[in-house]
Known about the structure:
Helix content is 79%, strand content 5%. By secondary structure, it is mostly helical. α1 crosses α2, α1 packs across α5 and α4 crosses α5. The protein is globular.
Amino acid sequence: MFLLIWILNAVALLIVASLLPGIAIASFWSALLAAVVLGLLNAVIKPILVLLTFPITIVTLGLFLFVINALVFWLAGSLFRGFTVNGFWWALAGALLYSVISSALSSLLAQ
């Protein structure tokens, strides 16, 4: 099951890269690696950022979480050459679209 979710997340990244010109993935193998990096960053770095920015998240009624998601997505794009994100706004759009697509693909597994 874990392997299938990993592959679906890589496919979601490929779909995002094909829809948004500011995001590029070199190959399917790069997408697999990017999915691992994104998962690790979401598991390790994102909770720390959420905790540190809790006051601003409260003030913005949770909208700052979109900024955190974009920063984590952008960081994943900066860590290796096969996955590139060209700026914050592309990271924001990519993170939103990636969340929607990966959730839709994952919901197909539940049925």
